[in-house]
Design a protein that fits this description.
This protein folds into four domains: 2-163, no CATH class; 167-223, Spermidine Synthase, Chain: A, domain 2 (Roll); 231-508, Rossmann fold (3-Layer(aba) Sandwich), CATH 3.40.50; 528-595. It contains 34 helices and twelve strands.
């Protein structure tokens, strides 16, 4: 029965993501209804194997202590055998088999063992029973049933296709919550546009690294926990915020490695002599090399050490004192993580801090309502009497706390941001060009967090861990993070403990055109109508929302004044409207004025490709790729490069397109569309085998070229594509 139930799991598992997506497509469902529906699915998966395993012990007892002959020692032996088997089975499965073989093969092994055991017991039960006897008639149905179920388990273990690690890594309850069309649902299930670079089932979690056109992402149990693109501001500020509050820190402890950017930031702090990393899952450390481009191979530095352990036990075993401690666990609604948000844990942290040490706790605002955030802040303040809230984006907070009042030394901040490595990270991802701009990332000071802590409505302690369950419920039915951020800013302002409005607006404009900070930038523009910075950023943000009225009225004036960013944006607007000559003039002036050259060159390449000026387009693509960046300040101009490369690949000189695509893939290897274009160029060059290889590469990204086989077949017959 256990084998048959587990065999059914293989069939049901392929339908589980579709079921979860369907649950989130139903309008009007509250969190309780969603939990019940998902619980129903879990029950369906677990029920039959659980019944089978539950029957094992009574059957074992019946075997070793038969009715009428049972002795106490026989029953005790059965209990002992069952207990020892359970311990060995749990340890062997969780720490050896799953890590070595993976969940799929481990389950198949269990199926095979159960199936063989069932068939062996069936044969043993039928052995020596005369056919036609009363005993034979009594056992016949049981023997046949047991044999069929055991055989089913064996067949499934040997025949059913293996689970795809792409499928295991979907995370539908996190990323499949919005309305989807059938095509969008298919793309989601296929992970369209992303390929899996690594997949490891570790002792505590499943860890994977994905690559797409945007960059690389670290996933833990299907949830994105770090990346080398969209999360960079948070990863940097988590390390930078406590270092800024603790002048001349020389030692730091980081709980949770992630992509390694926070550890790298702390290791880059001037005067930092020792950084220790605690990571509970060794698989996270093993994939760190895939993020070497942003973590600078920090684990290889002599000043950095890493230990694999639970944070609580590691902190209690470590007798050293640290100037800075950073805790960056996953979201509180993830099972087991909420224990890192209790006052008891924060007391353990404080014992590892130097007297003037600073603690930093990362808090994710997505799917967390204000009372939950207030509870976390209240728990921190229970242990650290002085606390502030800083932010990297409207979705991520840092609680910076200490046993002493937090003061910021100007000389230290100047030294910190003057460091070439820290300065570059701050400029490119935090929009901090000068030390005084850093305060723009402050949400509220000490007085503000005191007010916020009073709104904590949840009792969360080691002996009453309510946060994990309240946060999980909120995860299924929560306010948008923007609303929570706005509330926090208002609380800080009311307590007269927030960043000045202009500084806040400047920090929120770090991603050009991102409308998340539009409300605050609008306030700064109204307060300073003659300051063209605010006019430019409001125009860019409104354009991303489809409103170009301010851009049309203000950009020409700013461009005439020679502002490089305004010239670039005006050129982009003209290019989007297909005003080619005007766009070329503006972009040429933008480059001369010092604007971001890669983006300007990419737009010029697209304009040249529209005019079929292939030589000019090729030159501009090369120049763009030579100057390309991949930061918030200097984003990768994928759309414009994509337009130029597509035109060159389809209609331009094939050898030139081939060379440019190779260059582009060196800068962005996860850009799936380029492999398709490479395949088409290979066909034009008559390289049929290479074209087939490029089309096959698309499958790694969950994509396919439907006419690919026909195109390759035509190529091999000497026909044009």
């Amino acid at each position: 029965m256990t084998a048959a139930g587990a065999a059914g799991l293989f069939v049901f598992f392929s339908w589980l993501p579709l079921y979860i997506l369907a649950v989130f497509q139903i309008d009007g469902l509250g969190p309780t209804a969603r939990l019940l529906l998902m619980g129903l699915a879990v029950g369906a998966v677990v029920l039959v194997p659980a019944l089978g395993m539950g029957m094992t012990f009574p059957l074992l007892t019946d075997l070793v202590a038969q009715p009428g002959e049972a002795r106490a020692r026989d029953v005790g032996a059965a209990y002992a055998l069952n207990t020892v088997g359970s311990i060995i089975g749990a340890a062997l499965t969780g720490f050896v088999l799953v890590v070595a073989l993976g969940t799929d093969r481990t389950l198949r092994l269990g199926l095979a063992i159960n199936g063989v055991a069932a068939l062996a017991l069936v044969a043993l039960a039928a052995r020596g029973v005369p056919e036609g006897s009363p005993e034979h008639r009594r056992l016949r149905l049981r023997v046949l049933g047991g044999g069929v179920l055991g055989a089913c388990g064996l067949v499934v273990a040997l025949v059913v296709p293996h689970w795809s690690s792409r499928f295991i890594d979907l995370g539908p309850t996190i990323y499949g919550r919005g309305k989807m069309s059938p095509a969008e649902r298919r793309g989601f299930l296929d992970h369209a546009g992303g390929r899996q670079l690594a997949f490891r089932e570790g002792w505590n979690a499943t860890v994977s690294v994905w690559e797409s056109a945007a960059g690389r992402t670290l996933k833990v149990n299907g949830k994105a926990d770090a990346s080398d693109h969209g999360d960079m501001d948070t990863e940097i500020l988590t390390g930078l915020a406590p270092a800024a509050a603790r002048p001349n820190a020389s030692s730091a402890l980081v709980i949770g490695f992630g992509s390694g950017v926070s550890a790298r930031t702390l290791a880059d702090v001037p005067g930092m002599r020792r950084v220790r990393v605690i990571e509970i899952e060794p698989a996270v450390l093993r994939v760190a090399g895939l993020f070497a481009g942003v973590n600078d191979s920090v684990l290889g530095r002599p000043t950095v050490t890493a230990v694999v352990d639970d944070a609580r036990s590691a902190l209690q075993l470590d007798g050293a004192a640290y100037d800075v401690v950073v805790s960056e666990p996953s979201n509180p609604w993830v099972a087991g993580v909420a224990t890192l948000y209790t006052p008891e844990f924060f007391r353990i942290v404080r014992r590892r801090l130097a007297d003037d040490g600073v603690f930093c706790q990362w808090v994710q605002l997505y799917q967390l309502p204000l009372p939950v955030v207030a509870t976390i802040v209240a728990n921190v303040r229970d242990v650290f009497p002085h606390a502030e809230l800083w932010y990297s984006s409207p979705w991520d907070l840092m609680v910076v706390a200490s046993g002493r009042p937090l003061r910021y030394d100007r000389a230290w901040l100047e030294r910190l941001f003057a460091d070439p490595r820290i300065g570059a990270l701050s400029r490119e991802y935090l929009n901090v060009n000068r030390p005084e701009q850093y305060v723009g990332h402050l949400v509220m000071g000490d007085a503000g967090t005191a007010r916020l802590a009073g709104r904590g409505a949840i009792l969360h302690r080691d002996d009453r861990p309510q946060l994990e369950f309240v946060a999980a419920r909120s995860f299924l039915d929560s306010d948008s993070p923007g609303e929570v951020f706005d509330s926090l800013v208002a609380i800080g302002a009311a307590a007269d403990a927030a960043a000045p409005p202009e500084a806040l607006a400047w920090a929120l404009s770090s991603r050009r055109g991102d409308p998340a900070g539009l409300e605050y930038v609008e306030v700064a523009r109204r307060a300073h109508p003659r300051d063209d910075r605010w006019t430019f950023h409001v125009a860019a943000m409104r354009m991303s929302l489809g409103d170009s009225s301010l851009a049309d009225s203000a950009l020409p004036r700013l461009a005439r004044a020679g502002d490089p960013e305004a010239l670039l944006l005006a050129g982009i607007v003209a290019a989007k409207r297909d005003q080619r000559e005007r766009a070329r003039r503006l972009l040429g002036r933008a480059i001369a004025a010092g604007a971001y050259e890669a983006e300007a060159r990419a737009v010029l390449a697209a304009l040249a490709a529209r005019d079929r000026r292939w030589g000019e387009a090729s030159v501009e693509v090369r120049r763009a790729l030579a100057a390309v960046g991949s930061t918030f300040r200097h984003p990768y101009p994928r759309d414009w490069l994509g337009e130029a490369l597509t035109a060159l690949s389809l209609d331009g000189p094939a050898p030139r397109a081939d060379s440019l695509l190779t260059m582009a893939l060196e800068t962005r290897p996860g850009w799936a569309s380029l492999y398709e274009l490479e395949g088409l160029v290979e066909l034009r060059l008559g390289r049929c085998t290479e074209a087939a290889e490029r089309f096959l590469t698309l499958l790694d990204f969950g994509m396919a070229r439907p006419d690919g086989p026909d195109l390759v077949a035509r190529c091999r017959r000497g026909l044009s594509p």
